[in-house]
Q: What sequence folds into this?
């Protein structure tokens, strides 16, 4: 009998838990530990943030589902990792603290045979002075509750615009090393469309602010893509969309301070500037959770497990951009020091960024961090689960399943406006996510054809279809496993 | 605001009939890209 403990119940943790439970017999324990009571389908947050979808539509409680399916659920937060046990507990464990109910505040040593760290990122608002969701007229859409607040703030501005006032709207990244430009990109297009729907577009100045060097970088170094019969660069495509929508842009901006209606930033020229706004949505930087790890003698071994995020089978050797290789990226998400610990999704420490690193003239790093959206999070979680299943069933360690972001495709179906007949979407797929310049030297590291962009109503339908399909899958309804990650 | 997308292009982008077929096409193409497999990189090169 084996016990698999999964930390986190987001896309990655939930995918791993559901596949493990489906493929392993009931004699094996699957335990999910998460401080959150709900599963949420994060990609639909942007529709909550424009008031087009109730937040109840994008989340559901985990406890009843897990009880029905035979997955143990502990609503608790991880405190520290003990991969060798300790003097009194021989089995590896994670020290966790319950966050609700009668057990609130109680700590428990949750032992495991296999551990999947799917804790995702910490939304590091604290890294940008004054960037607090709902304060200083700045909002976030990173969680459904943040998105609800954002809609409240946006609606207020729309009412002011209707009353004849003018307003400035600023959307993008709130830190020099933020990621998730895609989410901000979706949000700015949706907000712009809502302004047009409310017939107040002419009264609002909409501006994109980002740490990207060029539009369409998306933390992936941009891409060369097929667009209809054309081959174009992603920055050309996004520039076309922004110009067509009348959206201004500020690039290479590392926002470091937010005050009431003012975002202060440094650009790559080393200039310190500020941008005023009446409503802002700024994505914070992501960081690890600051977990500590201890060996059996209670010595601190955090550096064996964490480098901000969790250390996995990546090549972390520091080297210049010109020497980066697709082979630097992990394949199995296994910790090299403790082979029964894995970190799929956003929980693993990337070897480096994907975009070319850039510094301002003052030496400030202004580079997007690598994105790891729902799709790679799901794929990496499933392959980790499959390797654990093979190891348990085969009786010997197996790492047969591999999935490097350098040999994996991803689709970014970006909503560009909500509405069954008036909506729009920008559908972009890229293969591979991390460019492989050795395999595809003439097409900027990507396979043309599999890397393409489309704009239109179909993109909105597709995003909506994915919303319902993935909620269905997450609820483990009949034949849920037929829907790919 | 600069009109970068022509009226004809916009018509094609928003026409429900054309977009229905585009929806089918995109669904299949995305399935091919995403569900078409993944793997390691270290043994391939």
A:
């Amino acid at each position: 009998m084996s016990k698999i403990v999964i930390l986190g119940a987001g896309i990655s943790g939930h995918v791993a838990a559901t596949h493990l439970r489906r493929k392993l017999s009931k004699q094996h324990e699957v335990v999910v530990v998460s401080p959150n009571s709900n599963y949420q389908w994060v990609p639909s947050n942007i529709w909550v943030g424009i008031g087009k979808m109730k937040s109840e539509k994008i989340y559901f409680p985990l406890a009843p589902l897990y009880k029905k399916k035979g997955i143990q659920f502990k609503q608790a937060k991880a405190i520290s990792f003990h991969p060798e046990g300790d003097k009194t507990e021989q089995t590896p464990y994670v020290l966790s603290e319950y966050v609700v109910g009668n057990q609130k505040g109680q700590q428990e040593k949750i032992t495991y045979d296999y551990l999947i760290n799917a804790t995702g990122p910490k939304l590091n608002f604290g890294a940008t002075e004054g960037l607090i969701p709902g304060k200083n007229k700045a909002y976030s859409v990173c969680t459904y509750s943040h998105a609800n607040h954002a809609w409240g703030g946006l609606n207020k501005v729309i009412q002011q615009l209707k009353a004849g006032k003018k307003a400035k709207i600023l959307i993008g990244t709130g830190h020099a090393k933020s990621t998730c430009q895609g989410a901000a990109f979706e949000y700015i297009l949706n907000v712009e469309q809502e302004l047009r729907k409310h017939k107040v577009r002419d009264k609002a100045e909409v501006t994109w602010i980002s740490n990207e060097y060029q539009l369409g970088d998306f933390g992936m170094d941009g891409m060369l893509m097929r667009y209809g019969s054309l081959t174009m660069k992603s920055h050309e495509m996004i520039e076309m969309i922004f110009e067509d929508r009348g959206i201004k842009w500020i690039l290479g901006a590392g926002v470091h301070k937010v005050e009431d209606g003012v975002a202060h930033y440094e650009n790559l020229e080393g200039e310190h500037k500020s941008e005023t706004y009446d409503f802002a949505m700024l994505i914070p930087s992501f960081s690890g959770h600051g977990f500590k790890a201890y060996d059996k003698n209670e010595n601190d071994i955090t550096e064996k497990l964490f480098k901000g995020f969790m250390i996995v089978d990546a090549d972390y050797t520091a080297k210049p951009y010109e020497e980066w290789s697709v082979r630097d990226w992990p394949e199995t998400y296994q910790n090299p020091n403790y082979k029964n610990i894995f970190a799929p999704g956003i929980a693993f420490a990337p070897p480096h960024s994907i975009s070319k690193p850039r510094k301002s003239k003052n030496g400030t790093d202004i580079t997007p961090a690598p994105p790891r959206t729902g799709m790679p999070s799901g794929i990496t979680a499933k392959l980790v689960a499959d390797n654990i299943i093979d190891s348990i069933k085969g009786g010997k360690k197996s790492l047969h399943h591999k999935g490097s972001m350098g040999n994996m495709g991803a689709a970014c179906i970006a909503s560009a406006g909500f509405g069954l007949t008036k909506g729009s979407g920008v559908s972009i797929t890229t293969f591979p996510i991390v460019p492989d310049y050795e395999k595809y030297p003439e097409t900027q590291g990507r396979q043309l054809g599999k890397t393409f962009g489309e704009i239109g109503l179909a993109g909105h339908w597709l995003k909506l279809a994915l919303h319902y399909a993935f909620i269905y899958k997450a609820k483990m309804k009949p034949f849920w496993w037929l829907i790919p990650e | 605001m600069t009109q970068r997308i022509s009226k004809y292009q916009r018509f094609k982008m928003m026409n429900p009939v054309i977009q229905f077929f585009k929806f089918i096409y995109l669904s299949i193409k995305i399935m091919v890209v995403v569900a078409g497999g993944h793997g390691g990189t270290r043994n391939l090169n």
Summary: The radius of gyration of chain B is 18 Å.
